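Can anyone check this?
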Amino acid sequence: MAPVVHAVAGHPVEASCSPLLMLITVGRLEEAGVVGLSLETTQVLRIDAVDVDAAIAAIVARHEVAEAERMRLMIKARLRNAPRAHPPVVPRFTRNPGHWLSLTSPLKHQIGSWRCTDGAQGLRAVNALRIDEHGVHSAGTDGAGVVAVARLAGCPPDGGAVLRMRGGGGAARSTAHAWVRAGGRLHLLEGRRPLSPRPEQAILVGAEVPAVLGIDFDGESDDLGAEKHLFPRYQGEVVRHDGVLTSNVLDGRWMLVAQHLEAWRSLWAPELRDVLPSISDLMADLLAVEAMMEEA
């Protein structure tokens, strides 16, 4: 069985949840009976880099994160304590694993001559790569992750619902385009840089129109006057809120979990989309394993 090698690359990456999310997802898929994936053989890396070419070159070195084996032990304990029902027919993992990357700042806007599965390269908003014998394949899952979390939280973009947003980086561009494609409208607040390119079919509204969701990608305000707020914080100190989606303040982990699952569906292993854990289940696993590691 060829190992899956996954890296999170960017600067900084010391506190990224991505390695733990990868191992939990593989553990759940293995538990479900997927052939070709193994928690024991999956390798997870952190690559501190400000250049995407350097990150791609570094993944072959396979310097696994120091706490990986401890993560595996905690995940096994979680799987024993929280088993789940599985579908009667489980697909096989049919792809040559190759090397998978999750890109974070400042690498999302650095685009190479890659095969893109969606329009992320045109938006300079790539956050996932797959490297195999056919080359480098790319996708952007930030926007899809936000839309998925919004639906789960009861504030979807359907019917012209308004997203109030500040920011002009890759995650903001991806989110704006995904929200509009899903039928929503935008209220754009001035930030450190303008949102460019804007969605071609975007319907822009003013502050007088109520917003169902607010996101400040610039991190300048905790309150944008929306019904609910999603904090796009992935590293360092975060707002936990015990993983409760009924709150009006949504932990940025929800976005990270949804993005991670979208990368599996759209780029890394689309054949496993029907057996992947749900956003809620993966979030519950993440919080449980994090708590176990803190207590150990």
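Reply from J.R.: I decoded it. The chain has a mean pLDDT of 90.
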